[in-house]
Amino acid sequence: MSLSRICCLQAHLRMASKTTANAVLLPRHRPTAQAGQALRTISSSSLVRDKQATATTAKPVQKQHDWNRAVSEAEKIVGYPTSFLSLRWLLSDEIANVALHLRKLVGSNHPLLKTAKILIYNGKNNMQAWGLIVLLISKAVGHAPSVPDLEQDKSAGVLHSQRALAEVTEMIRTSSLVHQGLVNLQPLANAGNELSGDSEMIFGNKIALLSGDYLLGNACLQLAGLKNQQLIELISSSVRDLAESNFVGDRDMQNNPLPSKPEPGTTRSSSDTLSDEDLGFGDLEDNTQPLNIKDVLGNPEKEWSLRHILSAGSLLGKSCQGALILAGQPEKLQKQAYLFGKHLSLAWQACIDMEPFGSPNLTPGGRFSLISAPVLFHLEHDPTLYEEIKKGRESVDNIDYAKIHGSVIKGPGVEKTRNLQKKHSLAAMAVLNELPPSDARTALQNIILAMQDL
């Protein structure tokens, strides 16, 4: 290569490096303070309106609040990814054997496979964010000065015992979901008959029962290792609530829940939702006692709230409360943490309930929860739809889901559910607003805002 050619190439390289350096040094576009405030607050008028107003000052190419991004950024704040927090039990010989046995169920229609897919799939229906919430509220609140230095994970800003509690929460939640994969192979009239033709389903039931028990047993062992009597009583009461959730209201032969017959009365407006006192069920006074279910069934918001506090909100709320017990925080702040976890869980559930009704038509063979908030609110508006739901007493397979979906889409149920989700999001935000500013608090606020895109 000639000398002039080499000099020419060197000149081009110098120009390219200067252009790159200038691009790096250019200040990035920052949203205005007004837009930044809109990203971190929810107005009581409308969550959706806030996001639309913010979008006018932000780049339209990227969503402001993406669920996966919010969770990913939150995981960095507490130290490491929290999906299946404890690899000690995930990689143990017992769980490895369970995974091998699960392969034998491939090709069958056992619901345990669907449960496993939901647990592993890291998408917008991520079920493994519960431990993350516990760690974030732990870091956002902090701990008392009396906590020994050896107990602190100073790099992540949480206590080792709080991280162990987050693992316990994940394992209890997972064990509950796995146990729900059990299948009733015989109606009561045929109980005791030969089941040799259902060998795959019997095997799947054994795996669901034993693996769920294994996770729950390990959670109890790890909880006992924390050596805190108050915490053990609190988390044990959440396990009781999980069990009780399976006995609320009507069920079909497979234990799928059915909504209660709506109470006769005046239909409320879409903005008329019940207060915290109306939805207390006794847990505002002492949340270790069983919830009061008197006069709840048949009232759409009360029934929906009770079912999902028992099945989810109790565990998340009490885990957040337990994290503050370990941190030595005062009782008043512990109660606020419980309310935060409960409201966050209900807001999350309302988002999930709205998802099947986001399109005008139900996909062929599509299913949705018959105790979801849109269905319960619509039954209050149009009690005649309950005749269709009564067909599911023996099996929900007898129900025309497309008919129910079409009716709910045309009624006020979806809008009432949207208001319900907004109410619980605002309640969770109100608790966070009482905490000092921190990256953990901001991460929790971003997760609440990101729920609107689920």
Automatic annotation (TrEMBL):
<dbReference type="InterPro" id="IPR008949">
    <property type="entry name" value="Isoprenoid_synthase_dom_sf"/>
</dbReference>
<feature type="region of interest" description="Disordered">
    <location>
        <begin position="246"/>
        <end position="285"/>
    </location>
</feature>
<protein>
    <recommendedName>
        <fullName>Geranylgeranyl pyrophosphate synthase/polyprenyl synthetase</fullName>
    </recommendedName>
</protein>
<feature type="compositionally biased region" description="Acidic residues">
    <location>
        <begin position="274"/>
        <end position="285"/>
    </location>
</feature>
